[in-house]
Amino acid sequence: METMTCGCGEDRIPGVLARGMVTLALTGLTVMALTACLLGGVLWAVTWWRDRAPAEREESFFDGFGRWEEERTEPPPPRGGGS
Length: 83
Known about the structure:
The chain has 83 residues and is mostly helical. The protein is 59% helix and 0% strand. The chain is built from 2 helices and no strands. The longest helix has 40 residues, at 13-52. It is elongated and about 100 Å long. It starts with 12 loop residues before the first helix and ends in a 12-residue tail after the last helix.
């Protein structure tokens, strides 16, 4: 049986849909890549700007732990029973 078409281009619909999907996918990938580059640039600029600022030393609660280890003068006792 022969299919009847009305000559209005319905035989081209699958091709148009396929090209539209490819265009949509490529556009999405391009937008995502540009967004990643933009966010990477902003992050680099923020870290560069923050590292450029004069560092003010702030006392932290955890700073004392390192100093306690340095201030000990005697070595720790050996563990276990030596033979």
